[in-house]
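Protocol step 6 of 9: fold each sequence in the batch and record its C-alpha coordinates directly after the sequence line. For illustration, a two-sequence batch is reproduced in full.

Sequence one:
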Amino acid sequence: MREPRDAFHLAIPARDLDEAYDFYVKGLGCKLARRYDDRITLDFFGDQVVCHLSENYDPNPSMYPRHFGVTFREADDWRRLVALARTRELEFFVEPFHRFEGKVEEHESFMLKDPSGNLLEFKYYADPRMMY
Protein backbone atom coordinates (compact mmCIF):
# COMPACT_ATOMS: atom_id res chain seq x y z
CA MET A 1 0.00 0.00 0.00
CA ARG A 2 0.99 3.59 -0.46
CA GLU A 3 2.74 5.20 2.47
CA PRO A 4 2.66 8.95 3.21
CA ARG A 5 6.31 9.13 2.12
CA ASP A 6 5.39 7.83 -1.36
CA ALA A 7 4.60 10.25 -4.19
CA PHE A 8 1.84 10.14 -6.77
CA HIS A 9 3.23 10.57 -10.31
CA LEU A 10 1.54 12.41 -13.17
CA ALA A 11 2.97 13.13 -16.63
CA ILE A 12 1.48 15.98 -18.67
CA PRO A 13 2.27 17.60 -22.03
CA ALA A 14 4.12 20.89 -22.26
CA ARG A 15 4.44 22.89 -25.46
CA ASP A 16 7.46 24.78 -24.06
CA LEU A 17 9.55 23.81 -21.04
CA ASP A 18 10.51 27.40 -20.19
CA GLU A 19 6.80 28.31 -20.03
CA ALA A 20 6.12 25.26 -17.87
CA TYR A 21 9.01 26.20 -15.56
CA ASP A 22 7.76 29.78 -15.25
CA PHE A 23 4.22 28.65 -14.42
CA TYR A 24 4.97 25.81 -12.01
CA VAL A 25 8.18 26.99 -10.34
CA LYS A 26 8.04 30.79 -10.49
CA GLY A 27 4.24 30.97 -10.42
CA LEU A 28 2.97 28.20 -8.15
CA GLY A 29 6.20 27.81 -6.19
CA CYS A 30 6.78 24.14 -7.03
CA LYS A 31 10.32 22.84 -6.64
CA LEU A 32 12.24 21.85 -9.76
CA ALA A 33 13.66 18.37 -9.20
CA ARG A 34 15.28 17.77 -12.61
CA ARG A 35 15.45 19.25 -16.06
CA TYR A 36 16.33 17.52 -19.32
CA ASP A 37 15.99 18.60 -22.93
CA ASP A 38 12.60 16.90 -23.22
CA ARG A 39 11.05 17.29 -19.73
CA ILE A 40 11.06 18.88 -16.31
CA THR A 41 10.27 16.99 -13.13
CA LEU A 42 8.58 18.90 -10.31
CA ASP A 43 7.73 18.49 -6.66
CA PHE A 44 4.06 19.44 -7.02
CA PHE A 45 2.78 19.90 -3.45
CA GLY A 46 4.53 16.67 -2.38
CA ASP A 47 3.76 14.64 -5.49
CA GLN A 48 5.66 14.29 -8.77
CA VAL A 49 4.52 16.04 -11.95
CA VAL A 50 6.57 15.64 -15.11
CA CYS A 51 6.03 18.12 -17.93
CA HIS A 52 7.02 16.37 -21.17
CA LEU A 53 7.81 18.47 -24.22
CA SER A 54 5.06 17.63 -26.68
CA GLU A 55 3.16 18.90 -29.69
CA ASN A 56 0.09 17.03 -28.37
CA TYR A 57 -1.30 19.59 -25.97
CA ASP A 58 -4.79 21.07 -25.78
CA PRO A 59 -4.84 24.83 -26.39
CA ASN A 60 -8.62 24.92 -25.74
CA PRO A 61 -9.29 22.63 -22.77
CA SER A 62 -12.59 21.95 -21.05
CA MET A 63 -13.02 21.31 -17.34
CA TYR A 64 -14.17 17.73 -17.86
CA PRO A 65 -13.04 15.05 -18.19
CA ARG A 66 -9.38 15.91 -17.48
CA HIS A 67 -7.86 18.06 -14.77
CA PHE A 68 -5.71 17.54 -11.69
CA GLY A 69 -4.76 19.41 -8.55
CA VAL A 70 -4.72 19.41 -4.78
CA THR A 71 -7.42 19.13 -2.15
CA PHE A 72 -6.24 21.00 0.93
CA ARG A 73 -7.04 19.94 4.50
CA GLU A 74 -6.81 23.52 5.77
CA ALA A 75 -8.84 26.46 4.47
CA ASP A 76 -5.95 28.84 5.10
CA ASP A 77 -3.70 26.85 2.76
CA TRP A 78 -6.34 27.08 0.02
CA ARG A 79 -6.78 30.84 0.62
CA ARG A 80 -3.01 31.42 0.52
CA LEU A 81 -2.81 29.69 -2.86
CA VAL A 82 -5.66 31.84 -4.20
CA ALA A 83 -3.77 34.95 -3.03
CA LEU A 84 -0.49 33.69 -4.54
CA ALA A 85 -2.15 32.97 -7.89
CA ARG A 86 -3.63 36.47 -7.96
CA THR A 87 -0.36 38.14 -6.89
CA ARG A 88 1.61 36.27 -9.54
CA GLU A 89 -1.12 36.88 -12.13
CA LEU A 90 -1.65 33.24 -13.01
CA GLU A 91 -4.48 32.56 -15.45
CA PHE A 92 -7.68 31.48 -13.71
CA PHE A 93 -9.72 29.08 -15.79
CA VAL A 94 -12.45 29.24 -13.14
CA GLU A 95 -12.42 31.95 -10.48
CA PRO A 96 -12.72 30.85 -6.83
CA PHE A 97 -16.25 29.76 -5.98
CA HIS A 98 -18.31 28.06 -3.28
CA ARG A 99 -20.00 24.80 -4.28
CA PHE A 100 -22.77 22.64 -2.77
CA GLU A 101 -23.61 25.09 0.04
CA GLY A 102 -25.37 23.44 2.97
CA LYS A 103 -24.52 19.90 1.81
CA VAL A 104 -21.97 17.55 3.30
CA GLU A 105 -19.79 17.90 0.17
CA GLU A 106 -19.70 21.71 0.46
CA HIS A 107 -16.35 23.05 -0.72
CA GLU A 108 -14.32 25.92 -2.14
CA SER A 109 -12.70 25.53 -5.54
CA PHE A 110 -10.85 27.28 -8.33
CA MET A 111 -9.06 26.23 -11.49
CA LEU A 112 -5.89 27.46 -13.15
CA LYS A 113 -4.77 26.89 -16.71
CA ASP A 114 -1.10 26.34 -17.45
CA PRO A 115 0.47 27.61 -20.70
CA SER A 116 -0.10 24.22 -22.40
CA GLY A 117 -3.79 24.06 -21.53
CA ASN A 118 -3.48 21.67 -18.59
CA LEU A 119 -6.16 22.45 -16.02
CA LEU A 120 -5.42 22.43 -12.31
CA GLU A 121 -8.16 22.40 -9.67
CA PHE A 122 -7.57 23.34 -6.05
CA LYS A 123 -10.21 22.57 -3.41
CA TYR A 124 -10.95 22.79 0.27
CA TYR A 125 -13.84 20.82 1.83
CA ALA A 126 -15.49 22.11 4.98
CA ASP A 127 -15.85 18.48 6.11
CA PRO A 128 -12.49 16.68 5.68
CA ARG A 129 -14.29 13.33 5.32
CA MET A 130 -15.38 14.50 1.86
CA MET A 131 -11.83 14.75 0.51
CA TYR A 132 -12.12 11.28 -1.03
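Sequence two, same batch, same settings:
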Amino acid sequence: MKLMKIHHVAVICTDYEKSKDFYVRILGLTPIREVYREERDSYKLDLEVNEQYQIELFSFPNPAKRPSYPEATGLRHLAFEVENVEEAVHYLNLHKIEVEAIRLDPFTEKKFAFFTDPDGLPIELYEC
Protein backbone atom coordinates (compact mmCIF):
# COMPACT_ATOMS: atom_id res chain seq x y z
CA MET A 1 0.00 0.00 0.00
CA LYS A 2 1.24 3.47 -0.89
CA LEU A 3 -0.48 6.43 0.77
CA MET A 4 -0.45 9.38 -1.62
CA LYS A 5 -1.51 12.29 0.61
CA ILE A 6 -4.05 13.21 3.26
CA HIS A 7 -7.41 13.56 1.53
CA HIS A 8 -9.39 15.29 4.28
CA VAL A 9 -9.83 15.85 8.00
CA ALA A 10 -13.33 15.53 9.49
CA VAL A 11 -14.51 17.79 12.32
CA ILE A 12 -17.80 17.35 14.22
CA CYS A 13 -19.25 20.50 15.76
CA THR A 14 -22.02 21.23 18.24
CA ASP A 15 -23.22 24.54 16.75
CA TYR A 16 -23.09 24.26 12.96
CA GLU A 17 -23.67 27.93 12.11
CA LYS A 18 -21.12 29.14 14.68
CA SER A 19 -18.49 26.66 13.47
CA LYS A 20 -19.26 27.37 9.81
CA ASP A 21 -18.70 31.09 10.49
CA PHE A 22 -15.44 30.34 12.33
CA TYR A 23 -13.94 28.13 9.61
CA VAL A 24 -15.17 30.22 6.66
CA ARG A 25 -15.12 33.85 7.82
CA ILE A 26 -12.37 33.81 10.44
CA LEU A 27 -10.03 31.09 9.14
CA GLY A 28 -10.83 31.90 5.51
CA LEU A 29 -11.48 28.36 4.25
CA THR A 30 -13.40 28.13 0.98
CA PRO A 31 -16.72 26.21 0.91
CA ILE A 32 -16.80 23.57 -1.81
CA ARG A 33 -20.22 22.04 -1.15
CA GLU A 34 -22.78 21.99 1.62
CA VAL A 35 -25.41 19.30 2.01
CA TYR A 36 -28.10 18.53 4.54
CA ARG A 37 -28.45 14.81 5.17
CA GLU A 38 -32.04 14.45 6.35
CA GLU A 39 -31.70 10.80 7.38
CA ARG A 40 -28.97 11.83 9.89
CA ASP A 41 -30.30 15.31 10.73
CA SER A 42 -26.79 16.42 9.83
CA TYR A 43 -25.06 19.06 7.75
CA LYS A 44 -21.81 18.32 5.92
CA LEU A 45 -19.76 21.24 4.67
CA ASP A 46 -16.66 20.53 2.57
CA LEU A 47 -14.06 23.27 2.97
CA GLU A 48 -10.98 23.84 0.85
CA VAL A 49 -7.63 24.82 2.33
CA ASN A 50 -5.42 26.61 -0.22
CA GLU A 51 -6.81 24.66 -3.21
CA GLN A 52 -5.07 21.55 -1.90
CA TYR A 53 -6.61 20.08 1.23
CA GLN A 54 -10.08 19.53 2.53
CA ILE A 55 -11.81 19.75 5.89
CA GLU A 56 -15.26 18.21 6.30
CA LEU A 57 -17.37 20.04 8.88
CA PHE A 58 -20.21 17.91 10.26
CA SER A 59 -23.12 18.65 12.55
CA PHE A 60 -24.91 15.86 14.42
CA PRO A 61 -27.63 16.05 17.05
CA ASN A 62 -26.07 15.83 20.54
CA PRO A 63 -22.50 14.75 19.68
CA ALA A 64 -20.37 13.45 22.55
CA LYS A 65 -17.91 15.86 24.15
CA ARG A 66 -14.27 15.56 23.06
CA PRO A 67 -11.95 14.92 26.01
CA SER A 68 -9.02 17.28 25.64
CA TYR A 69 -7.44 18.14 28.96
CA PRO A 70 -5.71 16.03 30.02
CA GLU A 71 -5.08 14.96 26.46
CA ALA A 72 -6.96 11.85 25.38
CA THR A 73 -6.05 9.10 22.95
CA GLY A 74 -6.82 9.92 19.33
CA LEU A 75 -6.24 12.80 16.97
CA ARG A 76 -4.40 15.42 18.98
CA HIS A 77 -4.91 18.61 16.97
CA LEU A 78 -5.32 20.17 13.55
CA ALA A 79 -2.31 22.20 12.32
CA PHE A 80 -2.18 24.88 9.65
CA GLU A 81 1.03 26.20 8.14
CA VAL A 82 1.32 29.99 8.04
CA GLU A 83 3.99 32.34 6.74
CA ASN A 84 4.12 34.45 9.90
CA VAL A 85 2.83 33.23 13.26
CA GLU A 86 2.86 36.69 14.87
CA GLU A 87 0.67 38.14 12.10
CA ALA A 88 -1.72 35.18 12.31
CA VAL A 89 -2.00 35.51 16.10
CA HIS A 90 -2.63 39.25 15.77
CA TYR A 91 -5.41 38.54 13.24
CA LEU A 92 -7.04 35.99 15.55
CA ASN A 93 -6.80 38.37 18.51
CA LEU A 94 -8.62 41.04 16.47
CA HIS A 95 -11.45 38.49 16.14
CA LYS A 96 -11.49 37.98 19.94
CA ILE A 97 -9.93 34.50 19.69
CA GLU A 98 -7.57 33.65 22.53
CA VAL A 99 -4.26 32.20 21.42
CA GLU A 100 -1.66 30.58 23.65
CA ALA A 101 1.79 32.15 23.84
CA ILE A 102 3.95 31.65 20.75
CA ARG A 103 6.51 28.90 21.29
CA LEU A 104 9.60 27.73 19.44
CA ASP A 105 9.96 24.14 18.20
CA PRO A 106 13.29 23.03 19.70
CA PHE A 107 14.02 20.70 16.78
CA THR A 108 13.10 22.88 13.78
CA GLU A 109 13.42 26.29 15.47
CA LYS A 110 10.09 27.25 13.89
CA LYS A 111 7.45 29.27 15.76
CA PHE A 112 4.03 27.83 16.59
CA ALA A 113 0.97 28.67 18.66
CA PHE A 114 -2.30 27.00 19.66
CA PHE A 115 -5.91 28.17 19.84
CA THR A 116 -9.25 26.35 19.71
CA ASP A 117 -12.29 26.25 17.48
CA PRO A 118 -15.77 26.97 18.95
CA ASP A 119 -15.94 23.40 20.34
CA GLY A 120 -12.50 23.42 21.91
CA LEU A 121 -10.74 21.46 19.14
CA PRO A 122 -7.05 22.36 19.42
CA ILE A 123 -5.70 24.10 16.32
CA GLU A 124 -2.04 24.85 15.76
CA LEU A 125 -0.47 27.54 13.61
CA TYR A 126 3.02 26.46 12.48
CA GLU A 127 5.35 28.89 10.77
CA CYS A 128 6.80 27.66 7.46
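Proceed to step 7 once all outputs are recorded. Observation for sequence two: The chain has two domains: 7-63, 75-128.
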